[in-house]
Amino acid sequence: MNELPLFKIENFIGGDQEWFTDYWMKLGGCGAVTACDICIYFAMFFNKTDLYPFNLKNMTKNDYIKFSQIMKDYLSPRIHGINTLEIFINGLQKYLFNHGEQSIQMKGLYSNCSLLEFKTAVRQQIDQKLPVPYLNLKHKNHAFNDYVWHWFWLAGYEEFGDITMVKVITYGTFRWLSLNKLWDSGYKQKGGIILFDIN
Question: How do residues 68-93 score in pLDDT, each as one tens digit?
Fold first, then answer.
């Protein structure tokens, strides 16, 4: 078992697009929320403080909403959503670059790879204390209805034999889900994960 340190926005773990008054951000701002959370994580735990333009010692919902409006310029909601890893990478990379951060590199791993490769990548990232943004598109398992066409991030894993459980951060809270089942969406169009490398 390995878990990442977490942070709170008032009494919430990470942000929640339900806070937004901007209609399109409330409807499709999950990519921006995930990017905001990732930037806060790097600011807090990797000393990349320029990535969060507000008070890290007293994070509030109001400041987070302002932050999301900044991130909207890089990862704005669109008709089909931020439905590829490349859109997310390009948007977040531009945000990082514009805020003086060039040591963080990203690449995508779609879930059309083997389950073993997917699990290994998740474990390696978390073992390096790195968060794992996750794009889930359509899914045959109705238990994941709240995660359809949705970005969130992984902050831990635990293994029980062949089953890998992951700690999913979204909607201002966390939940443990089966990575085996998440990976097995049952559809041809796949989501995937973002892998970080910090030089």
Answer: 999 999 999 888 889 999 999 999 99
